[in-house]
Task: structure prediction
Amino acid sequence: MKLSKKLTPIALTVAMATGASVVPGIASAEVSASVGIANMYLWRGQNLTPDAPQVQGGIEYSNESGIYGGVWMSNEHEGHETDLYLGYGGEASGLSYDISYWHYLYPEDGGTGPGTGLSDTALSEFVLGLGYADVGFNAYISSEDQGGSSWVYYTLDYTINDFNILFGAWDFDEAGNEEYTHLTLTYAYTENLTFGVSLAQEDTAGGVEEDPLFLVSYNIPLDMK
Result:
């Protein structure tokens, strides 16, 4: 699995799929869930399902202390992905903050037979987020070298009304990885229906898609009461 290809911070909303800053609500303990479909799996300015739509769903628990955790699943080009995450978020004097740990599992890459399973092929990140007013900043930091390069992926985004514009950039500690930057613009037409366009520019030679990508996504919250 190429490191520059996978690692999705959870996407119960399109904002999370594209990397925008999201701090969970912590007013009271609750369980939330959603399912969704999109014409592509738009991940950090790249399409991870070039030959198929994306179908995804997740469930999350959060409480008034600021602690939250959940599971998210999706198809992708090479099979399926299951994400496990645990974090803590809050707000003080108008500044929102969030720290979380994400574990991304790809069972198809682990092979078949005895000893194989969800944990056989995995990637993980620590995610640090800050937000103030309509501006958000996130840093996605590899938790280990995973047998290759370590990385940090940065995003800076701004939300105005129903629009969000996000700039993302990769930084690997070794040469030879597919470093690139991208701009992603999303528009929430309704609470469920979102449109987006993303354009990437590669910094090194590789297989990064640089043509514009157009997203249509429909997300359905599920009543967990």
User: Anything to note?
Assistant: The longest strand covers residues 79-92. The chain has one helix and 14 strands. Residues 14-222 form a domain with the Porin fold (CATH 2.40.160.40).
